[in-house]
Write a structure and sequence with these properties.
Blueprint (H helix, E strand, L loop, with lengths): L9 E2 H22 L5 H17 L3 E4 L3 E7 L2 E6 L3 E4 L5 E6 L3 E4 L3 E4 L5 E12 L2 H6 L4 H17 L18 H15 L5 E13 L1 H41 L6 H16 L16
Antiparallel strand pairs: 1-5, 2-5, 3-4, 3-6, 7-9, 8-9, 9-10
Helix pairs in contact: 1-2, 4-5, 6-7
């Protein structure tokens, strides 16, 4: 497994000035030796000039948040991450790799949640390269590798959660975005260890039921909401009836037997739980007639 190592590149400005001086001296030497037919000096000066010009090919620039991976005859020798102007062996192949933060959005995937409901889901992933040697030499194409492994992690994450929480405390895709995002980020990072990539952030960007069940699931959500609302209404009505009976008994306003209490409870619940306004009926006779 390739591990990143720093390459001690030489200062490029110093190397450039030195090579320019050598090249100029060689040129002047050629100019002086040619008329005098000094063959040895002429050949040596030409050789030095050619070598100095060739060595200038070892000069290279590293931009901010970039790196240069250096390879010599098929062997990895190191990476230069510091931005600036440098000189290295001109035989080295210098491959640029960006260290900048990148992001991409996956396609809308159709998967099943953990209740086997077909859903559509998409995600946005923010990532960057942190190990240049692994990114270039451990995988064929690290950008494509990130995209494919992200889709795999997204499918796996979606299958572990339900779309909606039907039990109190249950984590779901629609109600626990933070927990799902952390789980997705961890799943993607585990798959990208070999590529030298760090996942900065991952979050769900699109979430919906598949078209074939969207209408049925909407009715289910509406029914769940109605049931929850009814439960709250009945719970509140029972509390109000209980409080009314306790106050009547405490203040001695009226004494009711069990049968009349049951009738009163029934009437109050009808009034309190009805969807429409009730019409009062005034009893002008006896309470027991």
């Amino acid at each position: 497994m390739y591990r990143e190592k720093q390459y001690p590149a030489f200062n490029g400005l110093v190397a450039l000035l030195g090579l320019i001086v050598i090249a100029l001296l060689s040129f002047f030497s050629i100019v002086r030796a040619a008329p005098q037919q000094q063959t040895g000096v002429l050949l040596l000066s030409v050789l030095v000039l050619v070598v100095s010009l060739f060595l200038m090919g070892g000069l290279f620039i590293v931009n901010p948040n970039d790196a240069k991976v250096l390879v010599l005859f098929g062997k990895y020798v190191g990476t230069v991450k510091t931005d600036g102007f440098f000189f290295a062996n001109p035989f080295l192949i210098k491959r640029r790799i960006s260290l900048r933060v990148r992001n991409f959005e996956t396609a809308k995937l159709k998967v099943n949640d953990n209740q086997s409901n077909p859903i559509e889901i998409g995600a946005v992933v923010v990532w960057k390269v942190v190990e240049t040697a692994e990114a270039l030499f451990e995988v064929e194409n690290y950008e494509k590798y990130v995209a494919v492994q992200t889709e795999s992690a997204l499918r796996a994450t979606a299958s572990q959660f339900a779309y909606d929480a039907h039990v109190d405390g249950q984590e779901s895709l629609s109600t626990h975005a933070t927990e799902v995002s952390k789980h997705l980020q961890s799943a993607i990072q585990d798959r990208l260890k070999a590529a030298g990539v760090e996942v900065v952030e991952a979050r769900i960007s699109h979430l919906a039921y598949a078209q074939e069940i969207a209408a049925a699931m909407l009715q289910r959500q509406q029914a769940s909401a109605i049931i929850a609302a009814r439960f709250k209404i009945v719970e509140g009505a029972v509390g109000m009836v209980e409080n009314a009976l306790a106050l009547l008994s405490q203040k001695g306003i009226v004494t009711l037997d069990e049968e009349r209490k049951a009738a009163m409870v029934s009437n109050l619940l009808v009034v309190l739980c009805s969807e429409r306004s009730t019409q009062p009926i005034v009893n002008t006779g006896s309470l027991y007639t």
